[in-house]
What does this fold into?
Amino acid sequence: MATCAIKVETELSVSWGLGFAELGSTFRLSELQSDTWTDITGDVLSKLSLSYGITGNSPNDVVASTGQLQFSLRNDAGNSVTTQGAYSPLHANVRAGWTYGVPIRVVVTHGASTVFAVSSITRSGTTATVTTGSSHGRSTGDWVTIAGATPADYNGTFQVTVTNSTVFTHTITGSPSTPAGGTKTSTHVYIRFRGKVRVISPEPGQYLTQRVQVTCYDAVRDLMESKVREIALQINKTETELLTAVLDSLPTAAQPPLRSLETGIDTYPYAMDDVGGGTAAAGLIKNIVLSSLGIFFCKGDGTATYISRHRRISGSSEYTFDNSMRVGGVTVPTSLEGVYNHVRTTIHPKTIDASATTVLFSLTGTAPSIEAGDSITVWGDFRDPDEVKRLIGGTAIVDPLIENTDYDGNAAADGSGSDLSSNLSIAITTYASTCKFVVTNTHSTETIHLVNSSGATKLQVRGKGIYDDGPRTFEAVVAKTYGDRPVDIDMPYQDDGTVGQEAATYIEAQYDDLEDQVNEIVFLGNDSDDLMTQALAREPGDLITITESLTGLSATNAVIQSISHEFTLGSSGPRVIAKFGLAPASPYSSWNIGIAGNSEIGETSILLGF
It folds into this structure.
């Protein structure tokens, strides 16, 4: 039976010890404080469960849901710090650094063969170069744990860039002396979850269970809770550039810790014109990804990942599960709920005003008054002047604003006083579909009201409006004996009719019957080294193959949508049950020049126009 070991780490300011023996595999849970991860595995009770990725497997399920990690901690004096109440946030004895929002990760090691002696570690600036005594077998993007080095700054878990079979590099903090001393080792590890502690629930009763229930969420939760408002109109940008703009617009604390965004394949004339007064980042990401038929999720190590439709179509299988699930099995559809033979895709070509004369925003209601020397801030959403309830985008903004055209200032609220417009200084910042005015009264004594001589409120911005006036819908329908099963795919930023039609054709072929659909696969990683590797190495977006006699599956390809693990902890290491949520793979191979296996047109390979 294959084994693994786990470490649960969190970013605290003190060192904690690991309670599991190294039996060919390890597990650790830890938390991070100032780039120092602290092991809390010894205080984890009984069971740990985690899940992340894209929930569901319909054509519209393209963006991950919140990833979640749950476990219990010892809160009695028998824990690793011999302190009752160490994990109660309000307790006087709470551990330094243990609080809501602290980063946390689960690190898993499988197999003694992944441990290599390290010949040398040198440092140049923030880059450490590691040379192993034999071939390390690592790939760029893998994670390793360095141990036994001195100074201790060289030790820790790092993501590597491979130079050759015996050399890799990684980023290091601090300025430890070079070269490193000590008896050094490098161990391949898998980070199966990274997120933040969100729920800490101590069980009351100092003579009862003395446990603390902990729930952590991954970076997707931050994307769901964070609103995007201050983002520029995106003109002629790819989907990857749009995703980057959304992520960059967020506060640093709300951004995923790592990114891996594939090169975009579509270019959108206008995007983000639908942001308005604030839209959840996850919602904008879904609009982008649906427009390009890619997928977006956070990996176990916290990397925000975008995979384009080209790789989804041209990818190769990572592993074949062949009647190998002694515990668990596969779940296949038992109804037509996920079958679609009538696909409608809608694209959104935008129209734009010919000249920058459209009033995109005009302040209404009671006019603000500004005391002498004071400033006020006014926000406004761009709206269609012919249909004011309709939000639009804007470009070619008239800036600076023109006195007595775009704004007025008067000494009287009803406009009967002196015209003080020249005593107003107005700075305007415009975004994709909203604007911000900072209006300053430079008069030494007079209060200024933002009204014209008629007493009407006057503050506006002009430019070119961007309108979604002509959505176009494409269809792909194949008659089936089961009848009509429709699904609608909205592609908010897509304007290419060829992509719209080919997307409909592709999705219809992907979902029009049950023959090649699998909902999920469940297996015990401990059954074999191969299965343990699959449990720990696979991520959403990976392609796998399944053969299972009783369900009739024969070399059926499927794409992993979501990952779930349940670790039952014990003295000989954790028992690992893995579950992969699955979606249908490509119904055929696409012809992509330069991609091995997809460069020849044959019976199962077609030329796609997108």
Observations:
- The radius of gyration is 29 Å.
